[in-house]
Amino acid sequence: MSKTGPQASASGGSTASIPALARNLSLPMLVLYGLGVTVGAGIYVLIGAAGARAGQHAPVAFLLAAVIMGLSAASFAEFATRLPVSAGEAIYVETGFSSRRLGFVAGLMVIAAALISSAAIAHGAAGYIGQFVKLPGVVLAVTVILLTALVAAWGISEAVWVAAIMTVVEICGLLVIIVVGLWQDPGIVTRAPEAFIGLGSAGAWPGILSATMLAFFAFIGFEAMVNVAEEVEEPTRTLPIAIAITLVTATVLYILVVWVASHAVTRAELAAASAPLSLVFQRVTGASPTLISLIAILATVNGVIVQTVMASRVIYGMAKQGTLPVAFAAVHPATHTPLNATAAAAVLTTIAAVALPLEALADLTTQAMLVVFALVNLALVAMKLRGDKHTGGLVVPMWVPVAGALSCVGLVVANLFS
Predict the structure, then answer these.
(1) SS3 state at 130
(2) What integer pLDDT is reported at residue 378 of this predicted model?
(3) Three-state SS for 136?
(4) Tally of CB atoms within 10 A around 291
(5) How far apart are the first and last CA of the chain?
(6) What mean pLDDT is predicted for residues 191-219?
């Protein structure tokens, strides 16, 4: 398949071949990419903070986040078949509301969320790396950002292959914790209803809703897949399937890991741990936490790689649409990656990592993405109300984007008063 594309000359008479993004991502690679964003960005970094906020109700927080995310994921899946382009959210909002300005705002929010998320994951990586390398956390975080930017600039196939290998390793690490935890204490399964005890008390919900904000951060990832749509094989078929597989897999892994962790480690210990899953692994297996710490480093570094790829593609897509400087739309002829956009993403991520701590970064990311998801859901509602026909792919019923928008707005409002 050619990796270049025709573009009309200014005179309109001839065409010139210019570098373009290459469609190299199959369904398995896309799923691994999505899981790499999601799993690395979430459970390895924020399980301690989420457990500290919600205690035994942490699985409820993750389940609630999964339901809210699932509604928006369905809306994204329909949009991905309608408009399989980079900078997906910006184009979805612009098309749905027929407003270039609103689409621009949505695109900027997605870029900001991706960069802040990448900075948060880099902080998480620094916490695990700090167990082996005695340097300040900020120095380690910045080093991770710069090295992963080089991987992202290397090429989409290469970057996703690196991410895929890391994703398989990080999922294996979670499976070890789940299997050994259940093997050592089978009663964990029968005690599952304990997670729902006390939900009738108003006092339980501030902690649950606060933890849900962090858990929502842990599910952010499927939207990264729509932003590489121009590099996906058969995007209208592949993207909806990949989104569904990613969300279901992440939900099952998260709830099982959180439940095992809540029985292996106290709430106070989770809150204080800079490398929470290393502590859980040590308690569950009785073995040295070195192995899981190394896996956690891979998981978090992987998260930074895929978030950098996503941010650069949104910057590229918006520049291609004319809403950001055209220099960011340049694709290098050798790597077929947007190097200018990737460099910009790395610089801005570094600034965020230096300026803000982990939990603040995670909360900011979640709030920004909830607003973006609400806008995307409402954009789909607007298209359906206008009667815009779509026969080339997935179509979800009207209640899905309506419920998706209401749940996102509701979570933002609830968090303001929790």
Answers:
(1) coil
(2) 96
(3) coil
(4) 14
(5) 53
(6) 79
Looking at 134-234, list the stretches that DSSP marks H as alpha helix, in order from N- to C-terminal side: 137-154, 156-184, 187-190, 205-219, 222-226
Q: Which of 140, 45, 88 is nearest to 366 (CA)?
A: 45
C-beta pairs of 372-375 under 8 Å, 24+ apart in sequence: 372/89, 372/106, 372/109, 372/110, 372/113, 372/223, 373/72, 373/75, 373/223, 373/404, 373/405, 373/408, 374/404, 374/405, 374/408, 374/409, 374/412, 375/89, 375/93, 375/102, 375/106
pLDDT surpassing 60 at residue 122? yes
- CB of 278 closer than 8 Å to CB of 292: yes
Answer yes or no: is pLDDT of 181 > 60: yes
Look at residue 25 and give its three-state secondary structure.
Answer: strand
Residues 254 and 47: their CA atoms lie apart, in Å, by 9
Burial class (CB in 10 A: 0-12, 13-18, 19+), 193: exposed
Residue count of the chain, please give it: 418
Which one of 3.30.1330.10, 3.40.50.300, 1.20.1740.10, 3.40.50.150 gives the CATH number of domain 55-416?
Answer: 1.20.1740.10
Predicted structure pTM score: 0.75
Q: Is 332 helix (H, G, I), strand (E, B) or coil?
A: coil
Quote the DSSP letter at residue 232. Answer: B
- 220, 307 contact by CB (below 8 A): no
pLDDT, greater one: 14 or 67: 67
Are 88 and 101 contacting, i.e. CB atoms less than 8 angstroms apart?
no
Q: By mean pLDDT, which of 9-18, 114-123, 227-236 is the weakest?
A: 9-18
Six-digit token string for 399: 């209640």
| Domain locations along the chain | 55-416
Quick one: angle between helices 43-54 and 235-264, nearest 10? 50
Residue 365: predicted pLDDT: 77
Instruction: Indicate if the pLDDT at residue 45 is higher than 70.
Output: no
Pairwise pLDDT comparison (341 vs 11), residue with the higher score? 341
Q: Kindly tell me if the per-residue pLDDT of 13 is higher than 70.
A: no
* Dihedral class, residue 55 (left if φ above 0, else alpha if ψ from -120 to 50, else beta): left
> Which pLDDT score is estimated for 22?
66
Please determine, for residue 256, whether its predicted confidence score (pLDDT) is greater than 80: yes
Residue with tokens 């009738």: 200
